[in-house]
């Protein structure tokens, strides 16, 4: 059995209990080397075989899994954050299906949520935005034109932009071209939940300079939207005049 596990954003306590249990039991671990916190690997049992997938091709990863499966070993494929977000797991799962190798996916805390925690920010504020867009700028992996940052910016929803900090100038330009006013607040969270976590806040006008000054060029989340402003309506959920299934109106 192969367990595809979300390792969480970095803090080793942010892996799920299930993920940790499976990691502790694994005979073979293949981890995404660039971002998975190596401290997690210390949880593995003695004799566990550990591979860093950063230096492996898809074929090599699959071959490694196949070899372990043939020996009935327990395999963990450890991905950063949640594996469903830019995890490149679909192609791995499809190869496993073709080979009739059983697998399960254990979700993890994605870095866009660890970033909200770091910012002490709710992304879905009443009358500001009720939508979170998870996206990236086009890089070596292209993005369909209809999903360009400029096109998505027309919604002025809360946007969490992955894999794009090294192109912050382009990101800002697209967001403004798409319709965000240039004084829209924006925050950068580098290495959310790691001891070296860094936060930079600004507006679309000044953020690129601040990012450069702070020396942030990788492993960072870009969060943009009016939710980062301070003015918003209070939620209906805790409003005394708003009743729901679990609470009747206060007399
Ligand atoms: N599956 C992962 C994302 C992998 S793509 C997840 O769910 O989080 C890698 C990108 O994720 C990085 O370029 C960065 O934009 C973001 N990222 C990963 N870990 C991060 C962290 N701890 N803090 C901020 N951004 C992070």
Relevant terms:
five-stranded mixed sheet; alpha/beta; five-stranded parallel sheet; globular; 251 residues; binds S-adenosyl-L-homocysteine; 7 helices; 10 strands
Structural summary, described in words:
About 25% of the residues lie in helices and about 20% in strands. The chain has a five-stranded parallel beta sheet, with helices on both faces. Strands 6-7-10-8-9 form a five-stranded mixed beta sheet, with helices on both faces. It is globular. It starts with a strand and ends in a 27-residue tail after the last strand. The chain is built from seven helices and ten strands. It has about 250 residues and is α/β, with parallel strands linked by helices. It binds S-adenosyl-L-homocysteine (SAH). S-adenosyl-L-homocysteine binds near residues 9, 111 and 191.
What order do the helices and strands come in, and which of them pair?
Elements: E1 2-6, H1 17-25, E2 28-31, E3 49-52, H2 58-70, E4 75-79, H3 90-98, E5 103-106, H4 111-119, E6 132-136, H5 149-153, E7 158-162, H6 168-178, E8 185-190, E9 198-203, H7 207-214, E10 220-224
Parallel strand pairs: 1-4, 1-5, 2-3, 2-4, 6-7
Antiparallel strand pairs: 7-10, 8-9, 8-10
The structure holds S-adenosyl-L-homocysteine.
The site of S-adenosyl-L-homocysteine (SAH) has 24 residues, from α4 and β10.
Distance between the termini: 56 Å
Instruction: Report the structural category.
Output: alpha/beta
What overall geometry do the principal axes of the alpha carbons give? globular
pLDDT below 50 for ≥5 consecutive residues: which ranges? none
Number of strands: 10
* Mean residue pLDDT: 94
Q: Number of helical runs?
A: 7
- Quaternary state reads single chain
Q: Determine the strand fraction and express it as a percent band.
A: 15-25%
User: What is the element string, with H for helices and E for strands?
Assistant: EHEEHEHEHEHEHEEHE
Strand order of the largest sheet: 3-2-4-1-5
* Ligand set: S-adenosyl-L-homocysteine
| Fraction in helix | 25-40%
Rg over CA atoms, rounded to whole Å, is: 21 Å
Main sheet: strands, sense, barrel? 5 strands, parallel
């Amino acid at each position: 059995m192969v367990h595809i596990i979300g390792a969480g954003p970095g803090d080793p306590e942010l892996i799920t209990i299930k993920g940790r249990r499976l990691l502790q039991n694994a005979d073979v671990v293949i981890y995404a080397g660039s971002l998975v916190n190596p401290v997690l690997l210390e949880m593995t049992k003695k004799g566990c075989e550990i591979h860093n997938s950063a230096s492996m091709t898809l074929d090599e990863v699959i071959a490694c899994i196949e070899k372990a499966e043939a020996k009935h070993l327990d395999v963990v494929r450890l991905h950063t954050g949640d594996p469903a977000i830019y995890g490149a797991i679909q192609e791995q799962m499809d190869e496993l299906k073709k080979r009739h190798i059983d697998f399960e996916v254990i979700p993890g805390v994605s870095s866009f949520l660890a970033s909200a925690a770091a910012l002490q920010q709710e992304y879905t504020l009443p009358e500001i935005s009720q939508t979170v867009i998870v996206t990236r700028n086009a890089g070596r992996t292209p993005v369909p034109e209809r999903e360009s940052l400029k096109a998505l910016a027309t919604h002025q929803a809360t946007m969490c932009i992955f894999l794009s900090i090294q192109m912050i100038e382009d990101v800002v330009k697209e967001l403004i071209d798409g319709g965000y006013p240039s004084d829209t607040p924006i925050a950068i969270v580098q290495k959310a939940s790691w001891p070296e976590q860094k936060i930079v806040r600004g507006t679309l006008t000044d953020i690129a300079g601040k990012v450069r000054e702070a020396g942030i060029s990788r492993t960072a989340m870009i969060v943009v939207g009016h939710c980062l402003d301070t003015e918003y309506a209070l939620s209906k959920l805790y409003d005394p005049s708003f009743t729901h299934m679990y609470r009747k109106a206060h007399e």
